[in-house]
Write a structure and sequence with these properties.
The complex is a heterodimer of chains A (about 140) and B (about 270).
Chain A: H1 2-26, H2 35-47, H3 53-64, H4 70-82, E1 86-94, E2 100-107, H5 109-126, H6 135-141
Helix pairs in contact in A: 2-3
Chain B: H1 2-12, H2 17-34, H3 36-51, H4 53-77, H5 89-116, H6 121-139, H7 143-161, H8 164-198, H9 205-210, H10 213-253
Helix pairs in contact in B: 1-2, 2-3, 4-5, 5-6, 5-8, 5-10, 6-7, 6-8, 8-10
Classes of the chains: A mainly alpha (about 140), B mainly alpha (about 270).
Chain lengths: ~140, ~270
Amino acid sequence: MILAHREFVFFWVIDTVCNINYIVVVMTKPASLGEFEQIVLLAILRLDKDAYGVTIRSEIAKCTGREPAPGALYTTLDRMEEKGIVRSWLGEATPQRGGRAKRYFALTKTGHAALISAQQAYQNLLDGLDILGGAHACSFIS
Amino acid sequence: MRAASSAEWILCRLTTQERAAAMVGDLVEIEKQKGRLWFWLSVAGVALSLFWRRPIAFIAALYAGSWTLYWFDMAMHGMYALHRIPDERLSAILFGVLEWVGSTLCSLSIFAAICYGLRERTTQMALAWTALIAAVIYFWWQPLILALCIGAALCILAASMWTSKRRMESAVVLAAVAIGCAARFVFMISAALYQRFLYRGLWGTKEMLEHRSLAWVTASMIVLSLLVATSAWSYLRGLLLRRLAEIERCEIMYPQERTSPHGSSS
């Protein structure tokens, strides 16, 4: 009986340790994102299957009114791919591109989690503020 | 087309063939609206943004490594050191190793901070260990600070062993520092052998002026050792990121295997 009890305690301890380890491994804090990284990720999400350098750049320009420099865009995309936030694959080559293939981008699971976490933080800060209309908007403008 | 090929050749020096071709393809697509000047300015911008971090990080790391090695040495053995370490062999070896590892860690953490950013865990780990080693070297004679440093070191060690991801990141830092220290040792021994080859006796100003090549050889050895250390860091970091991406892909493909830590399928 004592042995059985000891075994139970032993396996309970092992199981608890494994569960804590699992929780820590699976529920680790998502990667933090900078402002431009969030903009790029949102543009990729908006473009869905058609997200490559040219379309991402024009989507950002259309939505924000600012054209990102190609250097900044490509280094951001490369960095995010290295970190596993986005993944890329080569598409078709077209004559307009001098026979060069397009490099398409999509968010990974980690990228989705990081973007949701970052946007949630913005949403929390915006809660209770009506900056696009209402009392706060008037006070900011005046 | 010649312009595009030249641009692709330039970008190929800085990134992979596939990425360079895709970037130039994008720029060629936009060139029709923006013009040739815009195309070349963009190629220059892309090349600069791909290139600038590494050389600047390398120079900063070289400076930081040499600077910390000098100041750590001054703090322990310098003429004006407030609390010199006792000349017992064990403490001398221990502090010598701390000094060596601390300066290597400092140069690598500065390199990683500039090249890959402060948000990377490996950079944060390297910076934390550098700060701890610096605190021990400067305040080893104050028991409270020494105890706090040991406590903090144990906490960092526990945090870096807690999950498999952290263990992999710690292994990268450890391996890069080990390679950096070994490279520095090998290259410094080579410089010392060259010094012996030039002149076997005691060195003074006269000998230094006679054999100016020693300064160049020593400087080259320092640069080479840092080159080995930073290349090892970049390579190991690349391996780590690929491994983490693989783990993530497996989690997406087989999520049920992660639901039970004792599941028979794992």
